[in-house]
Amino acid sequence: MIARRRGAAEWPRRWLGLILGLIARVWLATLRVRVRVDPALEVAGDRPWVLAFFHGSQWPLLAWRRRRRTVVLVSLSRDGAMQARALQVQGFRVVRGSSSRGGAGGLAAVVHAMRQDGADAAFAVDGPRGPRGVVKGGAIVAARASGGVVVPIASAVRSGVVLRSTWDRFAIAWPFTCVDVALGGPIDPGAIDAVSQVQGALVRLTLQLGA
After folding, report:
1. How many Cα atoms within 13 Å fall on the side-chain side of residue 99?
2. How confident is the model at residue 130 (pLDDT cuts 50, 70, 90)?
């Protein structure tokens, strides 16, 4: 009964998410994406990738052509229903959960989807509540459990707007402009210092892009 009521309450947000997702899909298709890939990624072979990025950098990453289907973890909040639908329009497989509500189940579902579908995954590693730019361990846990590697990924918007009123300073590129995406080398999730490795790699990639 509770699940049914929650589902009914989320329907307006799902419809809004569908509309926003369609607008975003058309907008993102106009962007020109320049990609830099660390040659070391070749050694990862066919192992699953767990893409690790900072909040606020998602817009260019949505325009980047992913190598295969990708799973994302979205909050169980009401706004999460809108975000989930918008991401589904972009071709993502969405799992609902968070570190504060249903986090363990959410991570388990992400790993299950990776194993079942041979999918990659993507995590905003400084979420869901910040502090901004500080890596948490969820992506590393998912990579370890799925037999994958963590791949740091960063982006830069050359012409656009930064939403400075938001905690993550979300950056949006104007239509028909160029954006940059950089993928770092694979990081072994079994390393003792895996968190600090991801932190350092993301900071370096961000600085290299001038974001």
Report:
1. 14
2. low
Provide CB contacts within 8 A for 208, sequence distance 6+: 154, 182
Q: What is the DSSP letter of 189?
A: T
Contact 33, 55 (CB under 8 A): no
Give the tokens for residue 115. Answer: 């194993």
Mean pLDDT of 69-84: 87
pLDDT surpassing 80 at residue 87: yes
Q: How far apart are CA 127 and CA 99, in angstroms?
A: 8
* SS3 label, residue 101: coil
pLDDT at 177 over 70: yes
Identify the helix (H) or strand (E) that includes residue 3: helix 2-29
Residue 69: how many other CB atoms lie within 10 Å: 15
Amino acid at 125: V
Report d(CA 84, CA 80) in Å as an integer. 6
Nearest to residue 66, comparing CAs of 125, 147, 120? 120
Are 31 and 175 in contact by the 8 Å Cβ rule? The answer is yes
Residue labelled with tokens 């989320």: 10
- What is the spatial distance between Cα 76 and Cα 91, in angstroms, rounded to a whole number? 20
Structure tokens at 86: 């918008």
| Sign of the torsion formed by the C-alpha atoms of 64, 65, 70 and 74 | positive
